[in-house]
């Protein structure tokens, strides 16, 4: 049984998660479904031991350092087992148990390998090959003598339907080449991403430079045009002052013409005792033969609006005239 | 095609690949968003600065016109208000003397006069508040014939800086025994005159 990683986080056992992640990575790297291995891993060629004595047998284009030697079928036992798909994370333990159950050799004298050959939604089929440790070691020694020490060997056996590599007899060269290719691919991808980021940085740098130039230009222009800006501020202030003063005086009527107009509209028989002007409100108090006529005259003159009598007309016995008080609004005539 | 390939992967491989792809996507998206934000910020900054620079260049190009216009407006303001060279009370006193002089010149008798200064801050809560001016208010009590009053009002309207009467009350003067017969036609006038002074 392989050791079980005991990771925990706040009391939660993370070993299952770790196993799943590890399994997922193995499936991506070495599984047939991902296709990564077919793309980047050197193709494995299988040779019988006797083929190694004849270099011309080595497949054309194959790396002579990557040699997978196939055990004779008579020296290996093959079996298979079906597992539920959820048990794949415990595949090593399951295979180990299966080997223990089926091996004719003592466990420490047994070498085995396994390979997932079929996978469905619910289950997976694993082929297992078993071989005696002595046989495997002997074959390795003979292969080394035949192919030379520089070659990297792996041992496989033909199971029920395919070649199954033996555990502990895997050649390191194929793995190194594969990871080397992966590294190169990763670096190229990283370079591509960096290139794209750099291309994306071009407009950023360009706009930043433009903005910086504008900032400098603004500072220069502000420095240079300080006096003009001050002059403009004084102009704006003068404009505001002028507009406000003009508005103020325009709202105030000029009283002099109104006094003349009132005098013109008043008959000689009317006596004004008191006259009051407050902004645009005119109030007159006086005596008239007929105060109502006088009120009507003022109203009809169209010089005044809202001509009204705040109190009743009364007869002044001494003068024999009507005493009146009239208020009105002077119309128009505001200053320009 | 990628979807078919992805669906064909074992479950654990799918998880690992999806997690790694999501992390990379988030990383790339963050980078792209940051770069885009930087670009937009730079563009916005440029768009903000461009009109400011153009405006100031415009000021520079029209400096002579600006100077001329400023002078013209200052002259116009001078014709409508007192400058704030002096203290407001001193200006008010000067105005008071001017108005007394006008009245005496046209034959009016100045019975009394008071000056008040209303600062722009004092009347800021009123409807017709003035932001840029103090108001110099002179209350005058005058005695004199109607023609003299008319002449006085003419003097007011012709004065520069501008003056305006905001209220006026008049009635026939009550004669005392000491008064001469010439004063029979006299009017008693109470007049409030307002001038503006640039707030200091």
Write structural notes for this entry.
The complex is a heterodimer of chains A (336) and B (200). In chain A, strands 10, 11, 12, 13 and 14 form a 5-stranded antiparallel sheet that branches. Chain A has helices spanning 15-30, 36-40, 91-102, 133-147, 172-224, 226-250, 255-265, 291-300, and strands at residues 8-9, 12-13, 46-47, 66-70, 77-84, 110-119, 123-132, 152-158, 163-165, 271-278, 281-288, 304-308, 314-316, 321-330. Chain A has 336 residues and is of the alpha+beta class. Chain A has 8 helices and 14 strands. Chain A folds into 3 domains: 1-41, no CATH class; 45-170, Dna Ligase, domain 1, CATH 3.30.1490; 255-330, 2-Layer Sandwich (Gyrase A, domain 2), CATH 3.30.1360. By secondary structure, chain B is an alpha+beta fold. Chain B folds into 2 domains: 2-61; 88-198, Ribosomal protein S6/Translation elongation factor EF1B (Alpha-Beta Plaits), CATH 3.30.70.60. Chain B contains 5 helices and 4 strands. Chain B has helices spanning 2-7, 11-61, 63-80, 88-106, 146-158, and strands at 109-118, 133-144, 163-172, 187-198. In chain B, helix 4 (88-106) packs across helix 5. The mean pLDDT of chain B is 89. At the A-B interface, helix 1, helix 5, helix 6, helix 7 and strand 10 of A face helix 2, helix 3, helix 5, strand 3 and strand 4 of B.
């Amino acid at each position: 049984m392989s050791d079980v990683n005991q990771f925990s986080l706040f009391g939660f056992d993370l070993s299952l998660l770790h196993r799943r992640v590890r399994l997922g990575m193995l499936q991506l790297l070495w599984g047939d479904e991902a296709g990564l291995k077919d793309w980047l891993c050197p193709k494995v060629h299988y040779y019988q031991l006797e083929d190694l004595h004849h270099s011309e047998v080595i497949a054309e284009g194959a790396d002579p350092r990557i040699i997978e030697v196939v055990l004779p079928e008579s020296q290996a036992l093959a079996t298979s087992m079906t597992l539920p798909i959820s048990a794949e994370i415990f595949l090593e333990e399951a295979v180990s148990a299966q080997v223990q159950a089926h091996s004719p050799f003592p466990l420490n004298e047994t070498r085995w390998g396994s390979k997932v050959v079929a996978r469905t939604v619910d289950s997976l089929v694993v082929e297992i090959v078993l071989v005696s440790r002595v046989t495997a070691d002997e074959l390795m020694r003979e292969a080394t003598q035949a192919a030379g020490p520089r070659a990297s060997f792996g041992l496989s056996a033909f199971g029920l339907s395919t070649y199954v590599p033996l555990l502990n007899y895997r050649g390191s060269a194929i793995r190194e080449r594969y990871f080397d290719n992966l590294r190169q691919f990763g670096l190229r991808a990283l370079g591509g991403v960096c290139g794209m980021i750099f291309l994306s940085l071009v407009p950023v740098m360009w706009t930043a430079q433009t903005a910086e130039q504008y900032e400098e230009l603004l500072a220069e222009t502000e420095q240079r045009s300080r006096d003009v800006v001050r002059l403009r501020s004084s102009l704006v202030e003068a404009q505001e002052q002028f507009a406000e003063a003009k508005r103020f005086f325009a709202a105030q009527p000029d009283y002099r013409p109104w006094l003349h107009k009132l005098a013109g509209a008043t008959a000689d028989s009317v006596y004004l005792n008191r006259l009051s002007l407050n902004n645009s409100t005119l109030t007159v108090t006086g005596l008239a033969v007929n105060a109502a006529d006088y009120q009507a005259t003022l109203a009809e003159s169209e010089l005044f609006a809202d001509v009204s009598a705040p109190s009743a007309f009364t007869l002044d016995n001494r003068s024999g005239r009507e005493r009146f008080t009239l208020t009105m609004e002077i119309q128009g005539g505001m200053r320009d | 095609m990628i979807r078919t390939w992805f669906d064909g992967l074992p479950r654990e491989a799918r998880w690992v690949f999806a997690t790694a792809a999501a992390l990379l996507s988030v990383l790339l998206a963050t980078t792209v968003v940051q770069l885009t934000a930087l670009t937009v910020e730079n563009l916005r900054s440029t768009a903000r600065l461009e009109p400011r620079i153009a405006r100031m260049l415009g000021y520079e190009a029209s400096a002579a016109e600006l100077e001329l216009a400023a002078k013209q407006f200052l002259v116009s303001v001078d014709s409508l208000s007192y400058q704030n060279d002096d203290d407001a009370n001193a200006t008010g006193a000067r105005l008071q003397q001017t108005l007394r002089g006008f009245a005496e010149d046209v034959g009016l008798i100045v019975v009394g006069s008071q000056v008040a200064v209303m600062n722009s801050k004092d009347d800021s809560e009123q409807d017709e508040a003035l932001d840029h001016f103090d108001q110099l208010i002179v209350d005058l009590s005058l005695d004199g014939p109607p023609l003299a009053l008319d002449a006085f009002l003419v003097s007011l309207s012709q004065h520069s800086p501008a003056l305006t009467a905001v209220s006026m009350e008049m009635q026939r003067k009550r004669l005392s025994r000491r008064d001469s017969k010439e004063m029979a036609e006299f009017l008693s006038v109470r007049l409030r005159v307002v001038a503006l002074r640039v707030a200091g």
